[in-house]
Structure formats: structure tokens, C-alpha cells
Amino acid sequence: MEKSLDTFISDSHLPTVWLQADAISNNQLKDIKALPCVDRVDAKTKLLAKVDLKGDSEKYLTLESFDESSKKVITVDKGKNFDNDSEGIWLDRNFAEKNHLTLGDDVSLVIANQTVHFPIKGLVESADKIYFTGSIEYLAPNSKNYAYGYVSENALAKVTKGRTTYNAIDIYAKKDDIRHDIEEILGEHLLSYDNQKTLTEVSEATGRVGQIRNLSYLFSFIFILLAILAMFTTIRRLIESQTKEIAVIKALGYSNGQITWHYISFGLLVGSFGALAGAAVSPLMSLFVLETQKTMFTLPDWQIAYSWSSLVVILLVIFICTLSAYLASRQVIKGLPAVFLRGKTKKVHHVFLEKVSLFWNRISDESKWAIRDAFINRVRVLMGIVGVAGSMMLLIAGVGMPISMNHLVDKAYNTDFSYAKRLTVANYNQAAKTYQGQGVQINRAHFSKDDGYNRLLIIVSDGDFVNARTADNKAIEEGGIYVTNRFAELAGIKKGETLKVTPYQDGKSYSFEVKGIVTSETNQGAYIRSETFEAAGGKFNPQTLLVDKNVSKDDIKNDQNILSVINKSDQEKNAYDFVNSLMSVFLMIIGFALLLVIVVLYNLGSLNFVERMRDYATLQVLGFSKKNLQLITMIENLMTTSIGWILGIPMGIWFLRCYVATFSTIRIEYTAYITWQVLLIASVLVWVTSAITTLIISHKIRTINMVEALKGVE
């Protein structure tokens, strides 16, 4: 995915900075071009149009003019290349496919209450719209209802009757932090300023690459751990089952080094075969991951690519398997041939718990045996605990991620906001008289202090639809400004401080006391009541009206004052679609977590069984039944699982918080939502898997041949 994305971006010569303003004069263009770090400036016109298509939902299109430089950023998938003399439109390919539009079809657009028709000349993908949502109110792309399109400046001039003015600029510069210079040049005309780190259409894609990369590192670590454990236990079991053969070849004069090399070569051979087999299968896994992302991101070519690090991983796996085989065999094969024929005996000793007579005398003989064995084989028990704890950690993350994200969606659209529709209006006063609702003005703003990025300033009138609350559960009130939690953390803003705010489209600076920290995860920035803003000298000029479900589609259908309509139900569904697009990744985490606990417990249990076969036979001679022996095995696994489970809970909570935070962006904060259901599901999966593995191991005890196990020299 990183290769596909980097290729698309580099081949497209993506701009460094994107600007939008209400109007840009020629003098302002000259001033921007004169900045020392600016190499090139491309001015264009951008308009929002309503698409006149039959259907139940409103459809909108961001219409832009193109020039010669646009041809590098935009890829024409089908149809004719850009033509400056053409009066047609080059349309978003995803939108065209989902609405069954083809080359040559006419697209009817409503611009400023005027209907215009454009024939489709081509279907395109743009490098600066890889993750195109169409509106900041959506978390994920909504290609069926939101699109982008390009027309020539000549065609656009006919629509606007020659009154076209530039209102957007693409800047190619040596650095992406020219915000202060741009604010001085454009002043109150500036609407938005974005670079490649903040433009959602690009940053979401590059951010997702980082998220998947971190996940790949995690999986690599897990499988390397499994490789170490599997190889170590396999070699130990192999040696235990070949003690007589080892005794014979020792008697024939073979050295310890030669015998050790035999087992090392086993690790080398198996490790090499496994690494190469994994490399052969890896494209299937890569394809699976890429398929999960195709619904979210628009790229012309999805290609599987591997770097030199992949070869390093293969060599590392082979080396680790070889090293594990060496460590497993180097001490075990030492000794005289007679020792191997007789069978090695373990050194036993008392444990400190035996001194606690009140406890020791009350537990069963099976429990005493299991406890002694655990203290004798501390490394093996520790490996089991680490495996179970790691599995519990991953399960909490795998189960908790979708629950945390779904909680964010539910909180955002049912608690923080309770409107039914968002109406974007041309004249707010007229709309407020027609529909009862709550006015909201949303501006990009430069805050001092800040975290280096522009944030949203959300000015709200009196109403019941914006219900975001502070950490101490207080509503947004008059008398100060309220900063969202993530913005406050990144910028170091604290309650009681004075915050300077310069809203775009205003140009003036205002100072407000930070009255609270809002726990809203969406719309990162600051909230303020309109009364407070106006008291400071600002002008409340909202373009959004929040209304309830009593305002029907028929009421607003023919109202020319309404520019666009967003249903909260559509926003909520869109957000859930985003979470569902990641479900396959979360299921992978759960699957690998279960695999971890199965491999760890089974391998350690099998090694324990092979090493103690003579002990089990001896206990049978002393009167222990096979049920007693099975109980010993169960107690040992119960202790290992219990300790690992207990340690895994805080580890899992910590890991879930860290991993959820990696999905946070400039405009959204993802936080872990840990419930008893998350811990219960993860715990049940760990314990059920552990129980099944224990039953499989304990069943082997029934196969012990007591006479064969106690045989010494034949």
C-alpha cells in the first residue's frame, strides 16, 4: 500500500499547500508568488454544486477548473485527455460507477440556482483526493453521494457568465509551513490552509499506511516469538525421544559439537523451509490487506511491493530458528553415554511455600507436585506466562478496537449532537425564521497557543442540538471558550488560561478564557457560545442550521435558500462503514492472539509431557491414577494461564489505549473504551483456548506405557 501510495503521489507532483479564500486578487497572487520559498502557484476556481440525479439522497459535487499543471495531479482512467477548449466534465470515477454514469452521459449540476449540463468526457482519479469524503462532516468516503469533477476555465466562465474569480490556490514550495505569510497576505479572505499533513484527502491515506505498518511490526514480533518457542521445544522433545540414539553415537566416538551441529542443522533446515514457504504465501496476505482498504482509498494502481527489509526478516527468522536449536541442544546433549542410556534425573528441592505449613498441608498432592515442578522449570513456566499474557493483551486490543470506535460513533451522533439534519443555508436569518433549530458557525482558526495546525472554531447559538460536555460533565456556557481534549493536550492548553483566536474569514484576533476542556472526539478545536463571541466584538454569521426530525424532506426540497442537506443518520452509517472496513484487521489480531496461546501452551505442555514421562510412570507405580496425573497437568496449565491472564489485563488495557490512539488524526481523537464486556470476551477466549489445549495434552497421559517408560538400559 505504501508503494502504491508513494508512486501515485510522487508521479502526480502533489502540491505542498492548498488554500481556499472567498476571492483572490491578482495582487495577492503576486505576493504569494514572491515568497522566497514558493516555487510555483496554480490558481483555480472551486464551486459546490448539487447533482441533479434521480434517487432518494441528495448528491453534491465539488467542481474545479483545471489548467496544464492539473494534468499531473489528476489521472484520466477512461475517456479523453484534458482539453482546454472542451465544454465537458471529467468526473470522479467512483461516483460515476456507483451511479451508473458512463462516458458521453450528461450530468446536470445546480450552481447558484442555475442548472447547467456537462457531457462526461472522462473518468478521473486525483492524487489530492485519495480519501475524498466530500464534507468534513463525514468520517469516511461517501462516493455514491459526494463527488469531484473538473471543467476547463472556458467552460466554467460560461456558467458564471464571465464573472469567474479565483478562490483556491495550489502552492508548490520548499517548505509546508508558510501559514503566517499566507494569513498576512489574504487576511480576512482566507478560508482554509492545508498542507500534506493536514489535508484529510491525503493525510488519512498516509496515516493508514503507518497504522498498518505498526500492525505488521506487531505480527512480526509475535511470529518470531512463536518461532523461537516452537523450535526450542521441538528440539528439546526430539532430544528427549532420542536419548538412546545419542548414547550410541557418543559411544562410537562422536563429539558433543558434532551432535549439536546435527540438531542445529535441523533448525536451519526447518527454519529455511518455513521462511521460504511464508515468503511464498505472503502475497496472499498482502492482497487480503489491500482488498480491505480499496473501499476507503482511491488509487489508480494497487500493487504488492516488498523492500529489502523483507529479505532481512527472512534471514532473521532463519537465524533465530538456528539459534533456538543451538540453545536447546548445547547443554542437553552433554554427558556420558551411560547417563543417556539410564536417563537423566532432575535435581529436586524444597520450595519456600512448603515452609508455610498452614497453606501447604491444606492443598492436594497433585497441587504440591505441580507447584514444585513450576519452581524447578521456571524458564518454561515464564515462557507460558508471557505467551498467555501476550495473547490476552492482543485479544483485548482485537475485541476492544471495534467496540471503542463504535462507542465514538454512538457518542458523537447520539450524545454530543442530537440533531436530525444539518442544513447549509445561504441566508441564515431567513432559514431561522422558516425552521426552528440551532445555528452553528464553523471557521478554521489560528489559535495561540496551538500545535502548529489550524483548528476549527465552532460558534453555537442557544439550542438543544450541540450537547458536548466537559470532563466534569458541564455543558458549554457563556463567558469563555471550550477546547477539545486532544487539541488541549497537543497544544498544552489548560483550563483558566487565556487563549488568543484569529478566525479565518474574520481577520481579527480575540482573547478568551479557557473555561473547560470538552471530551468531544470529533471536530477537534474549540467551542464558544455566540453570545460570548459577540460580546468580544465578533460577528456571528452562521451558515449551518441544525434541525430536528420534524423538518421533513418535502419541507426543504424546493427551498432555494438551502444549499445542502446532511442527515445525521447518513453520517452515522458512514462512520460505522469506516469501522467495518477495519474489522478484518481486528479479526486478524484476534486470530493471531488465539494462535499464540495455542502454540505456547501446546508446545510447553508437550515438552513437559516428554520430559516427565518417566515421572508420570513412577507416580503410577506409587498409586497415582491416570486421572490424578491428568489433574497435575491441568493444575500446571491453570497456574500458568491464571498468572498470564492477570498480567495480560493491565497490559491489554495499556496496549489498547496506545493502539487506538494511532488512529487519531488532526480532526478526530480516538480513545479506548474499555468495558467489562471487552474483558469478558477476551478472558473467555483465553480460558476456552487454554482448556482445550490442556485437555489435548492431558489426554496423552492415557497413552503412557508404564513398563516402557521405566525401562533403563536394554
UniProtKB/TrEMBL annotation:
<feature type="transmembrane region" description="Helical">
    <location>
        <begin position="635"/>
        <end position="656"/>
    </location>
</feature>
<keyword id="KW-1133">Transmembrane helix</keyword>
<keyword id="KW-1003">Cell membrane</keyword>
<protein>
    <recommendedName>
        <fullName>ABC3 transporter permease C-terminal domain-containing protein</fullName>
    </recommendedName>
</protein>
<feature type="domain" description="ABC3 transporter permease C-terminal">
    <location>
        <begin position="218"/>
        <end position="334"/>
    </location>
</feature>
<feature type="domain" description="ABC3 transporter permease C-terminal">
    <location>
        <begin position="588"/>
        <end position="705"/>
    </location>
</feature>
<feature type="transmembrane region" description="Helical">
    <location>
        <begin position="217"/>
        <end position="239"/>
    </location>
</feature>
<dbReference type="GO" id="GO:0005886">
    <property type="term" value="C:plasma membrane"/>
</dbReference>
<keyword id="KW-0472">Membrane</keyword>
<dbReference type="Pfam" id="PF02687">
    <property type="entry name" value="FtsX"/>
</dbReference>
<feature type="transmembrane region" description="Helical">
    <location>
        <begin position="305"/>
        <end position="328"/>
    </location>
</feature>
<dbReference type="InterPro" id="IPR003838">
    <property type="entry name" value="ABC3_permease_C"/>
</dbReference>
<feature type="transmembrane region" description="Helical">
    <location>
        <begin position="260"/>
        <end position="285"/>
    </location>
</feature>
<dbReference type="InterPro" id="IPR038766">
    <property type="entry name" value="Membrane_comp_ABC_pdt"/>
</dbReference>
<feature type="transmembrane region" description="Helical">
    <location>
        <begin position="381"/>
        <end position="403"/>
    </location>
</feature>
<keyword id="KW-0812">Transmembrane</keyword>
<feature type="transmembrane region" description="Helical">
    <location>
        <begin position="582"/>
        <end position="604"/>
    </location>
</feature>
<feature type="transmembrane region" description="Helical">
    <location>
        <begin position="676"/>
        <end position="697"/>
    </location>
</feature>
